[in-house]
Specification:
Layout lengths: L3 E5 L5 H13 L2 E4 L11 H12 L18 E7 L7 H9 L6 E8 L6 H8 L4 E9 L4 H15 L1
Helix pairs in contact: 1-5
Amino acid sequence: MHKTIFVYFSYSGGNDKIAKHLQDELGCDILKLETEATYSPTSLKTMFAGGMESVRKISPALKPYTFDSAKYDNIIIGTPVWAWTFSPALRTFTDHTKVKGKNVLLTCTHGGKPGKTIEKLTDLFAGNNILFKKEIKVPITTDILEKISLEIAEILR
């Protein structure tokens, strides 16, 4: 069996739900990226600052994590959409962790306008075999979780 990990950042909890579900259903490992600075999910100031980080391509400091891409055949990426692109935490991850020659599955959660997030993620993970691209509209329901895990399981067979 091929080893799989879900690497993600979660702002308001949507990707946390996906991570838990994929871990339960697929038995994959999870790596939650956490920034040193805390983003308050209820603050407009925080949302604006996070959006500006995305637009300016800023890479915020992450809390320490352990990740060895050599241990995994498949890497699932999860990010919320911030200012029509992926979260700054994901940029920091790719700045410090080289992922090449892997099977990569891309997901983004959004409230209505995903922009070019999947396209930008595809560019960010160039040099990998992109197997799956999925824009997921919140709220994350049980039906959505089931559909995603079935689609991913089918691809990873």
